[in-house]
Every structure is written in structure tokens, then in C-alpha cells.
Write a structure and sequence with these properties.
- The chain is an alpha+beta fold and 71 residues long.
- The protein has helices at residues 10-17, 21-30, 47-55, 63-68; strands spanning 7-9, 37-39, 42-46.
- It has a 3-stranded antiparallel beta sheet.
- It is globular.
Length: 71
């Protein structure tokens, strides 16, 4: 019997990564996060892909965001 891979929805991946779901979509569009497949019009991500994205270095905030205290 095969073990089922762990899959994350956009909301679950966003929560695991500590980012907004809209950012998950931006990361998919930029190639930073690769979906395993599309289900019902939405993305599903393998747990290994979410873990890889979590361990990848994040870009530093620009001066505008740093001044606002956003990051």
C-alpha cells in the first residue's frame, strides 16, 4: 500500500509559511513556489514544496516597508 503524500491548499500553505494567501499566488506566478496540481480551480502543494519554500531565504524588505514597520 502506498502512503498518501501530504498536500496543502493555498490557505494551509500560507498559514504554514506565515504569509497571506495572495502572496502564495504571487509566488506561484513568479516560480518561487510550484504547485503539485490544480484541484477545482485552486492550487494544491506537496508538503515537501512548502517545506522547501519555508527554508528558502526571503528577500529583504525595501526602505518603504522598513520605515512603515511592515516587515
Amino acid at each position: 500500500m502506498h502512503a498518501q503524500p501530504v498536500l496543502f491548499t493555498v490557505r494551509e500553505a500560507a498559514a504554514a509559511l506565515g504569509i497571506d494567501p495572495r502572496t502564495v499566488h504571487r509566488w506561484v506566478n513568479s516560480g518561487r513556489l510550484t504547485p503539485a496540481k490544480r484541484v477545482g480551480g485552486g492550487y494544491v502543494f506537496a508538503g515537501s514544496e512548502v517545506a522547501r519554500a519555508a527554508s528558502a531565504p526571503r528577500p529583504r524588505c525595501g526602505p518603504r516597508h522598513a520605515r512603515s514597520g511592515w516587515c
